[in-house]
Amino acid sequence: MGLVVQKYGGSSVADAEGIKRVAKRIVEAKKNGHQVVVVVSAMGDTTDELIELAEQVSPMPAGREFDMLLTAGERISMALLAMAIKNLGHEAQSFTGSQAGVITDSVHNKARIIDVTPGRIRTALDEGNIAIVAGFQGVSQDKKDITTLGRGGSDTTAVALAAALDAEVCEIYTDVDGVFTADPRVVKKARKIDWISFEDMLELASSGSKVLLHRCVEYARRYNIPIHVRSSFSGLQGTWVSNEPRGDRKVEQAIISGVAHDTSEAKITVVGVPDKPGEAAAIFRTIADAEINLDMVVQNVSAASTGLTDISFTLPKTEGRKAIDALEKQKAAIGFESLRYDDQIGKISLVGAGMKTNPGVTASFFEALSDAGVNIELISTSEIRISVVTRADDVNEAVRAVHTAFGLDSDSAEAVVYGGTGR
């Protein structure tokens, strides 16, 4: 039996009963002969409550102190879980991110992991202990400040530790039974996927699937760490995410892996851009200098009479104000006429490596949207993904229509979201 890294989300450790239930599952893995490292998120909505508290005290809290505050939630979870395990007769030691050797860059609120030096974790395991690590946090390499990893940071912590410790598997425990062909809160007949490739999971994650975050999957693919996504509320097998199916099981790659959606983005249209070399570069350099990540980009055909064009792009809603301010400062230099901002949009994505060799997928996708009366504003494609932007109000209907059109609906019982969040 090898080393296993388990990660438990906030819904799994939301209260004392949840913590005790998780402790029993961890002890069971230990009894089965595994060395066990556990990564925990903050209890329930603790992080959101801390953010709200910070905003009440200061409208613009300093990044360093904000990170110091937010990491408190995970420290509470890890200590309580260690207590619960000891109450079951097993030894457990809890560690903060810095104590666990999670070393990051110096960007507060969205730091990236540079290295993991898990010496203290190794020692704890060698002594026969279960190691409990606070997720979502690390320590900066230069200033030794506490940092947080941003949304989905605990998943990334777990995979990074699994890679550093050469773990057999990284188990991500959540409040659904695995990865589904669509969000089970939107599509009740969504099917659980038994196995999915890193490539397809990356596309689903980047397109809005919440069960795993893009950074976590990318880290796992880079170090070839199999991920097993399963529920902490049931004993069912979940979804394996890896390069190849596990063991002797032969799972044929589906044409379509799933339908993802995202309503957390906004759209900015730069109106009246001179259609000449360098203009688009100037726009996107301005956005890059503001440290804003973009998603979809579309440039309209230039109007012959004016020589002007419009450029539209999508970005996180939380970055909308910053992007508008940055572009307005460069308006004279770039020479555009105006900006339009729209945060009432949604993105629907069809993902599947099999679509590369199956003609008609694109036509069926757009026919399904048309039959559902959904209007399309932007289109973006890759070899294994088609994404469109629609009105936010149309997203749920669009997801259900596409899911049904591609025969993804399950014939069995409805999917269960045990904790109500899908994370």
Instruction: Give the neighbour order of strands across the main sheet.
Output: 3-6-2-1-9-11-12-10
Low-confidence stretches: none
| Average residue pLDDT | 91
Structural class: alpha/beta
What's the end-to-end separation, in Å?
28 Å
Question: Rounded to an integer, what's the Rg over CA atoms?
Answer: 23 Å
Helix content: 25-40%
Please give the largest β-sheet: 8 strands, mixed
Can you count the beta strands? 20
Globally, the shape reads: globular
Q: Treating each run of at least 4 consecutive H or I residues as one helix, how many helices? A: 13
The amount of beta strand, in percent, is: 15-25%
What does this structure look like?
The chain is α/β, with parallel strands linked by helices and about 425 residues long. About 35% of the residues lie in helices and about 25% in strands. Strand 1 (about 5-10), helix 1 and strand 2 form a beta-alpha-beta unit. The two termini are about 30 Å apart.
